[in-house]
Amino acid sequence: MKGKGLDERQRQAAARTGAVSFYVMFILCAAVILIKLAGKGRLEDASGETVILIAGGIVYLAGCIKSGIWTRNGGGMTVWQMVLGSIVCSGLFSVLFAYIIVQKAGENAVVAKYVAIFFVGAAILCFICLYALEKAVEMRKRKQEEKYFE
How far is CA 137 from CA 11, 65, 94, 116, 125, in A? Predict the structure, then answer.
């Protein structure tokens, strides 16, 4: 007679399904926010989705940090990976920012200066966040290793 509960394979399958579901919800929520902001440009119109996106992101990051997980391969990010990630991320959001400004201000609006400032600021902020998260994971890993070493 089978025992109650899931076996190890079923638990892993459920965890994978949950992770994929979270990623889908997270991406769709971000897409809805961007579509609403591009349309009307008012954050109030996307406040519910924004709260859900931020809360889900915080819970996910907190869980990863608590578990000592930051990358899929279990290692850390190099400084160059952080720089590249920051540039790509800020570049994508800068393009969106420029599009929204042009939509609101008109095609004759001069946006290059503001988009450049936004790009640099976002890249710096993104790098600082990645670096801080990397250090938090390293500290958590050290604590876990010390705990299991004793």
Answer: 25, 5, 29, 32, 18
